[in-house]
Amino acid sequence: MLQQALENGVLTLTLNRPESLNAFTSELLDALADALKEAGKNEAVRAVVITGAGRGFSAGQDLKEFQGREPAFRQHLRHYNRVIERIATLDKPVIAAVNGVAAGAGLSLALACDLRVASSAAVFITAFSRIALVPDSGMTYTLPRIVGYAKAYELLTLSPKLSAEEALALGLVNRVFPEAAFAEKARAFAEEIAQGPTKSYALIKRLLKKSAAATLEEVLEYEAYMQELTGRSEDHKEGVQAFLEKRAPEFKGR
Ligand code: LHQ
């Protein structure tokens, strides 16, 4: 259901229900939440990739899970919200490797990640309004912050199918890689990030999250505090030394 593999500092979590385009069941969401919690504790993990098995990334909620009964929506969303909150508070970069279609809460999950890379074959659909729902899993928070209110309103109400190139033009994804080389390119991208100054990345994430609901004055204060922390790191010393010696730095995430 959820595959896990740790290699070269990158923990890859693969949603593995390909027969339903990796639609989410409560079980899959809980497994994902647990894996993210463990990733936070494991020092060997310096970046996390979430991707999908088969031809989809995730088609969102498994619409067969509640067949014949009414879901308790608010209660069910706790499974989603735990995942979204763990991504937001995880001090490590989380990359969505969108290998195929991302719809509904599958797209919400991708948008909650820090970076998104897409296969040229990927398709993006907000999908909620197509089944007369409102979005969940933070999409009304993340989407307007990425594309602005006007585009978010359009994407959420009309729910068009966007190609990877359209998603790139909107800033919904950071990179598009050709379908045939996607897995390899996405891995290389994630490994490059895992080799980076990941302690500094962690504090950049905290600063950006804080700035979403803070005044300039508060942000300036928080930046100064975080600068003290990164300024005393081994990686900062290595970064300056490497610059002075005109060589590439070797960061350790400390
Ligand atoms: C699926 C699904 C799926 C089950 C494809 N479930 N089987 C939260 C709380 C509580 C309730 C409700 O929702 C939420 C959050 C949400 O995420 S709401 C949004 C839910 N997702 C959708 O509405 C998307 C539904 N899927 C689609 O519109 C299409 O499948 C897309 C556009 C994603 C892909 O289209 P195609 O590439 O043409 O593939 P397909 O439709 O042929 O699907 C392939 C198989 O996957 C098929 O099974 P089958 O046995 O017929 O081969 C689908 O039934 C199954 N599948 N999505 N969400």
Textual characterization of the structure:
This is Enoyl-CoA hydratase/isomerase. InterPro entries: ClpP/crotonase-like_dom_sf, Enoyl-CoA_hyd/isom_CS, Enoyl-CoA_hydra/iso, Enoyl-CoA_hydra_C. It comes from Marinithermus hydrothermalis (strain DSM 14884 / JCM 11576 / T1). Belongs to the enoyl-CoA hydratase/isomerase family. GO terms for molecular function: catalytic activity. It is a single chain. The protein is α/β, with parallel strands linked by helices. The chain folds into 2 domains: 2-194, 2-enoyl-CoA Hydratase, Chain A, domain 1; 198-244, Lyase 2-enoyl-coa Hydratase, Chain  A, domain 2, CATH 1.10.12. The protein has 10 helices and 10 strands. The strands form 2 sheets. Strands 1-2-3-5-7-10 form a 6-stranded mixed beta sheet, sandwiched between helices. Strand 2, helix 1 and strand 3 (47-52) form a beta-alpha-beta unit. Helix 4 (139-147) packs across helix 5 and helix 8 (198-211) packs antiparallel against helix 9. The radius of gyration is 19 Å and the shape is globular. The two termini are 33 Å apart. The relative contact order is 0.12. The mean pLDDT is 97. It binds ligand LHQ. Ligand LHQ binds next to helix 2 and strand 6.
What's the gist of this structure?
By secondary structure, the chain is an alpha/beta fold.
